[in-house]
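Hi support team,

I submitted a single chain yesterday and got back a structure, but I'm not sure I'm reading the token output correctly. Could someone confirm the output below corresponds to the sequence I sent? I've pasted both exactly as they appear in my results page.

Thanks,
R.
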Amino acid sequence: MKLMMLDDLFVEEMQDLYSAENQLVQALPKIAKAASSPELRRAFEAHLEQTKGHVRRIEEIFSNVEGSPKGKKMRGHGRAAQRRQRVFER
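Hi R., thanks for writing in. Yes, this is the structure output for that exact sequence:
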């Protein structure tokens, strides 16, 4: 999509954020489960709740602007998720 206006850029950036936050929502439970200490596990679980709040706020923003939060999936975060998965499989 060719960006023609500042509004288009805003929507694109918000879609990227939405994708990144949702990928974290998927990854953080696995990371927490693999944590080496209870304190670290709790920190990841707290981060998960914060991240879920970010997703809700982005959805709320999109309820007030034209566009959908669901756009392209951020590939960079997908590669990071693959690396995390390899670590957890060890």
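A quick pointer for reading it: Residues 32 and 41 are 5 Å apart (CA to CA). Let us know if anything else looks off.

Best,
Support desk
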